[in-house]
Specification:
The structure holds 2 protein chains of 2 kinds.
Chain A lengths: L18 E2 L2 E2 L4 H20 L9 H21 L7 H18 L11 H23 L17 H13 L1 H34 L1 H37 L4
Antiparallel strand pairs in A: 1-2
Helix pairs in contact in A: 1-2, 1-3, 2-3, 2-7, 3-7, 4-6, 4-7, 6-7
Chain B lengths: L1 H20 L14 H134 L5 H14 L1 H5 L2
Helix pairs in contact in B: 2-3
Classes of the chains: A mainly alpha, B mainly alpha.
Amino acid sequence: MAANPMYQFNVYRIGPEIKLGEIDLSFTNASLFMVLSALTVLIIFKLGSKKNIIIPNKIQLLAELSYSFISKMISDTAGTKAKPYFSFIFSLFMFVLFCNMLGMIPYSFTVTSHIIVTFVLAAFIFIGVTIIGFLKHGLGYLKLFVPSGVPIVLLPLIVVIEIISYLSRPISLSVRLFANMMAGHTMMKVFGGFVVSLGIVGGWLPLSFSVALTGLEILVAFLQAYVFAILTCIYLNDALNLHH
Amino acid sequence: MFIKKTLFSIISYCALIKTALSAESGGMPQLDPEFWFSQIFWLVFTFGLLFLILSKFILPNISSNLENRKSQILENIEKAEEQRQESEDKIKEFDKIIYESKVQAKNILNEAKKKISEDINNKKKVLEDEINSEIKAVENEINELRKRSPETINQIAISTSSDLLKQLIGADVNQSNISAIVEDLSKKEKGKYYGV
């Protein structure tokens, strides 16, 4: 059973069954790794912000570099108006990054390889951004669907396309992260299985693939967290600075 | 009949997909809704807590740390700029002092040169005066000697000629005659004998 590459994505209960009415809210391995990711982020940044030293130590440097990295990313893509949403995007990036990275530890569980998790995050972002857009611009936010400089003949078509592309944002955002994580982990599992089945003689080739894939997956783990955060920034930019 | 068949096939397809997607048959566990609500609940819980703690307690600290560092660096740069200005002023002062002392040294040197050359000139003058007076005295002496030399020569000529005549003739010749002849000759031939 363990040789099944999809087995690693199984969710199972840890501890007793917790039920709220009909809804099952049990603590699972997915919950465990969410808690671990959040705790890791909190510990690292707590340590990194504890002392106020002029010349930072390593952990403080890490925290401050992350802070200025995200801050620069937000101001580059969404401008200064997005400053109130910094904490959210920072938490989002760090949460996704650490879920991805903890998933790279062998025998661990990748929270973000589950579509329901990424979809809830993306849907929350989508709904939040839409609400912000309507709050800032009122019904004028609908102008987002009417690009300027388009011939009137083409307008109905363009508006329909724009609305579809806007509505598909949460799906593309969530599926991108989910599919990347799942595909990478499945591939690694498959190559790991090849190593075992080909044995000491033929196992070296898939093993080297596995090693290369591990490096690639670490890159993907970072990149997908970054893409997730930067797309959030871009959506936020649409809502804050309407310039179609 | 046809519709029934297609409906049946669709239903069987759905059943196939359902079995394929269920975790037991090796499909995608992600699509098994058994723990969806649990995952949503724990996601909201952990992420919400993470967001709250980060935004309330940790990020403000980091932000203030960064601000502090920035202001400290700016302050230090300002201070460094001030000190640089100060050192530049000091260098200017130093240059001025060196320039002044150089000028002073030049003046002293020039004065000393002047003094020395004056001294030398004075001494030269004194020496020249001395030399000149000595030369004059010697010239005078020479002139005197020259003035007196014709008379002496005349007397020598007179006495020599009288001695010669005495030995030739054997008798004394009148001295006054001889002297008259000599004088006459010396006057006539003055240029020839003395180069005067």
